[in-house]
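Support reply, case 0932

Customer input (verbatim):
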Amino acid sequence: MKFTKMHGCGNDYVYVNCFEEKIEDEEKTARFVSDRHFGIGADGMILIKPSSIADFEMCMYNADGSRGAMCGNGVRCVAKYVYDNKLTDKKLISIESMGAIKNINVFTEEDKVVSAKVDMGAPILNAKKVPVKSESEKVIGKEITVLDRTFNMTCVSMGNPHAVMFIEESPKDFPLEKYGPVFENNEIFPDRTNAEFAKVIDRKNIEMRVWERGSAETLACGTGSCATVVAAILNGYVDNDVTVHLLGGDLDISWSGNEEDSVFMTGPATTVFSGEIDIK
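Our regenerated output:
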């Protein structure tokens, strides 16, 4: 199987051009190639396929083989792949993922994509649709006790569920591996959740670490960055244009604060290497 390794702010995936390649067992293949000891090593696998409702379809798998509905860093890299490899000459590209379509503007240097701006759609705040079990319609700044600590939690879906917690200490000092898995698998999240632990630096800057559903900690999360900024705006912590500083790099997120308006994410997309691997 031919593949290309790409990343957005260190959130790395194995990309496969399914216009040319055919994979019999996608879940098993995702687990194999994602393994950092016996496979290629990645946060997951993303398949690039034809679409009947958009320019291309993105099928995203987490490292554990579970299917993901959306990946903000991944969709930028898909846009880079199809443009750089001459599958399209458009600079406004539509990409479908599990029926939802995202529109991506790509920015190029020497005819190669270096970054992209994604219309991530409007955030979903209704608790049942996130989903998160709650007696209230929305979960904004709600206290939740996990293990030995109480957090203020805001829940947002950006096509996948997120629980955002604002903390006082630097995220680099936060014991993510202690609390992240407990949030991911908490019974109040019927489909598990991604968990973000963020510190507001000022009205335009947030530091954040993320525990991703099905992949553990990743160096960046596009949908998680969007959810974090939405949560910060809803809680009155930041303005409408925010830079999220992640372990792997920075993402610029914009949202008007109107629940019906789209969240926009701008960030880099990078090709690491291409190769071929025997699928076991």
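We compared this against your earlier run and they match. Two observations from our side: The chain has a mean pLDDT of 98. The helical segments are 26-34, 72-84, 176-184, 222-234. Please reopen the case if you see a mismatch on your end.
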